[in-house]
């Protein structure tokens, strides 16, 4: 099934580096490879959202920027319960 979501203009290597940097910065550790992959996917989706939002900011379509934070690898349900 083809993805209809816009993609980041980053290589897989750059995304992996951002994921590694994120985990170091926010002291995240996922010993289970399946959970790490799931959390990375959530993080990548958040990166896409931030990128799209901030492009609208640059075009003066919205008035504020957003960024990645310590919750960027959590699901919506997990963020609500935090």
UniProtKB/TrEMBL annotation:
Superkingdom: Eukaryota
SMART domains: Inhibitor_I29
Pfam families, alphabetized: Inhibitor_I29 (PF08246)
InterPro entries, per database record: Papain-like_cys_pep_sf, Prot_inhib_I29
Residues in coiled coil: none
Cathepsin propeptide inhibitor domain boundaries: 19-79
Protein name: Inhibitor I29 domain containing protein
């Amino acid at each position: 099934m083809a993805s209809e979501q816009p993609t980041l203009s980053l290589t897989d290597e750059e995304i992996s580096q951002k994921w590694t940097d994120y985990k170091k910065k926010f002291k995240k550790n996922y010993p289970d490879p399946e959970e790490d992959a799931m959390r990375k996917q959530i993080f990548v989706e958040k990166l896409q959202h931030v990128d799209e939002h901030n492009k609208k900011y640059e075009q003066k379509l919205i008035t504020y920027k957003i960024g990645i934070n310590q919750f960027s690898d959590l699901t919506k349900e997990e963020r609500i319960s935090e």
